[in-house]
């Protein structure tokens, strides 16, 4: 008799043999379908742990590019992700008004990094705050991940202690050649002089790429207009 090369259970999620197939000659072999499914499940779990639920489906292919600004933003984001430029200490800034697709692209890069088995932390600006001990512990955990994404940074760094911890974080990652992705609806000028501050800004901009998304209307509104209902 010929050995069975097809997955006998058809659905890897109900496999009772842990990904191995018993063949007619009494030997066993790996079920590649099962291990491919298992790997995909691990990626999904990491995505679900790393990203807020509303961003789980944000990918490069479903990013709508209805004008040149969005096309360029997508192109640069793909290049950053494909070349894993965060491992060269290069930072990426997404700037633009609310609903311009900044977080979608940041989440798509997060997905790419996780699939590539990189360690990633995705955190929002408001989540940076907290009590003294909590902030210090939190920032220590952010130091050594391969890629750090800080989404929707606004006025959180006005607190002097938080500002100092942020500088320590940026300086550490700068010297370790570990990149950061930042998204904000604030302008470069406001970020430099009011939000981040000149000292931290000087560290950041030396190895940073700025993507300013300029669209006449909200990316979210445009996507709603495309819904066929």
UniProtKB/TrEMBL annotation:
UniProt entry keywords in alphabetical sequence: ATP-binding, Helicase, Hydrolase, Nucleotide-binding
Organism: Geotoga petraea
PANTHER family listed in its UniProt record: ATP-BINDING PROTEIN RV3427C IN INSERTION SEQUENCE-RELATED (PTHR30050:SF4), CHROMOSOMAL REPLICATION INITIATOR PROTEIN DNAA (PTHR30050)
Gene3D superfamilies, per database record: P-loop containing nucleotide triphosphate hydrolases
Domain AAA+ ATPase: 88-206
Molecular function per GO: ATP binding; helicase activity
Protein name (database record): Phage DNA replication protein (Predicted replicative helicase loader)
Family matches, as InterPro entries: AAA+_ATPase, IstB_ATP-bd, P-loop_NTPase
GO biological-process terms attached to the record: DNA replication
